[in-house]
Amino acid sequence: MKAWIAKGYGGPEVLELIERETPRPGRGEVLVRIRATTVSAGDWRVRSLILPPGMGVFGRPALGLFRPRKGVLGTDFAGEVAALGDGVKGFKVGDRVLGFPGGEMGCHAEFRLMPADGRIVRLPEALSFTEAAALPFGGSTALSYMRRAETRPGETMLIIGASGAVGSLLLQLAVDGGLATTTLTSAGNRDLVAGLGASRTLDYAQTDLAALPDRFDIIADCVGATSFKTTRHLLKDGGRFLAIAGGIGDMIARPWQGRRAISGPADERREDLETLVGLAVGGRIRPVIDSVFAFAQMREAHARVDSGRKRGAVVISL
Ligand SMILES: NC(=O)c1ccc[n+]([C@@H]2O[C@H](COP(=O)([O-])OP(=O)(O)OC[C@H]3O[C@@H](n4cnc5c(N)ncnc54)[C@H](OP(=O)(O)O)[C@@H]3O)[C@@H](O)[C@H]2O)c1
C-alpha cells in the first residue's frame, strides 16, 4: 500500500510517499480501506512542531526527537472494511465506516488497522466518505469541550474562529444545544457562520474585543487569538473560557472571580463519533469542507492547512 510519511519536522516538503506492506488484521482488528481522510490542525502541529505558546519545550520529547514518532500522520478516516481479524463482531467486509484514531494518527495511507472496539463506527449511506471524514477532528473536540464546560440551553457563547474545523462544528453543536451564539470571524466568513446558525456575527477587523459591552457565559477561542487573562472580564459570573488552542498560560490559569479556563487535549471517544454521525444524518449539523485534494496532492493539502485560512476541513480523497 501507499502511505505518506513525515521524514522530519518542517514544511510540507518533509512528506514523502512510500510503499509499505499492507497490514493484516490480528485478533479483534479491522482492516479499513481508506476512501477519505483529512489534513487537520493536529497534522500541521505534529509535522511543523509549531505548538501553542509555552508548549515547545514538550514538543520533541512528546512527539519524537528528530522526526514525528508517528511517521504516518492523519487523524481520521472514512472508508470500507477490507478484512476482519478473528473474533471481530459488529463489522463485516464491505461495511462503510468512520474512524477517529486522533492522536494515534496513521490515516494518510491506503489502509489502516483499527481495533474493532476502538474509535470506529458504521457509516450510513446518507453521508459521503468526503463529508464524513470532515466530522471527527472538529466535532470530537467541540463535543469534548462542551461536555467539560457543561453548556446549557439558553447560555450565551462567543466563538472566536468559528470558520475553522473546530469552530464550524462547535458553532453548530452550540446552536443545536440551544445556546445563543456570537461569532468573531473575518468579514469574508460572515455568510458562512450566519448560514451555520450564528445568532450574531462580529468582524474581527472592526471589533475591539476587550471593549465589548457584552458578557458571555462561555467564550470559546478556537484559534488561540486570545487568552483567559485578556477576556475573563467578558465572562459572566460562573463563566468558562474554552482555551481550545491555548498555551501553557491558559493551562495554569487560576479561576478569577468565579470564572475559569478549560484547556488541554480533547477527549477522543467512540460515542462522540456515533453522536456526530447521528446529528449529521439527521441534518442537525453539516460538515464544512474547505477543499478536497487527491492522495497524490498531500503536500498541497498540507500547504493549505499551513495557511491558517481554511474554512472547515481539508479533505483528501482516495
Ligand atoms: N485542545 C485540543 O485537543 C485540540 C483539538 C483540536 C484542535 N485544537 C487546536 O484548535 C485550533 C483550531 O483548529 P482548526 O482545525 O479548527 O483550525 P483551522 O481550521 O485551521 O482554523 C482556520 C480558521 O481560523 C480562522 N482564524 C484565524 N485567525 C483568526 C482570528 N484571529 N480570529 C478569528 N478567526 C481566525 C480563519 O479564518 P480567516 O481566514 O477568516 O482569518 C480560518 O477559517 C488549532 O490550534 C488546533 O491545534 C486543539
Put the structure in a nutshell.
The protein is of the alpha/beta class. It has 10 helices and 15 strands.
If you had to describe this structure to a student in words, what would you say it looks like?
There is one protein chain. Helix content is 26%, strand content 27%. It is of the alpha/beta class. It folds into 2 domains: 2-134 and 287-317, Medium-chain alcohol dehydrogenases, catalytic domain (Quinone Oxidoreductase, Chain A, domain 1, Alpha-Beta Complex), CATH 3.90.180; 137-263, Rossmann fold, CATH 3.40.50. The strands form 3 sheets. Strands 3, 4, 5, 6, 7, 14 and 15 form a 7-stranded mixed beta sheet that branches. A 6-stranded parallel beta sheet has the order 10-9-8-11-12-13. Strands 1-2 form a two-stranded antiparallel ribbon. The protein is globular. Bound molecules: NADP nicotinamide-adenine-dinucleotide phosphate. Residues 40-42, 45, 138, 141, 160-161, 163-167, 184-186, 188-189, 204, 222-225, 244-245, 265-266, 308-311 line the site of NADP nicotinamide-adenine-dinucleotide phosphate. NADP nicotinamide-adenine-dinucleotide phosphate binds at residues 40-42, 45, 138, 141, 160-161, 163-167, 184-186, 188-189, 204, 222-225, 244-245, 265-266, 308-311.
**Oligomeric nature of the chains:** single chain
Using the alpha-carbon principal axes, give the shape.
Answer: globular
| Backbone structural class | alpha/beta
- CATH C-level class of the largest domain: Alpha Beta
InterPro entries: ADH-like_N, Chloroplast_QOR, ER, GroES-like_sf, NAD(P)-bd_dom_sf
GO molecular function, one term: oxidoreductase activity
Domain Enoyl reductase (ER): 10-316
Protein name: NADPH:quinone reductase
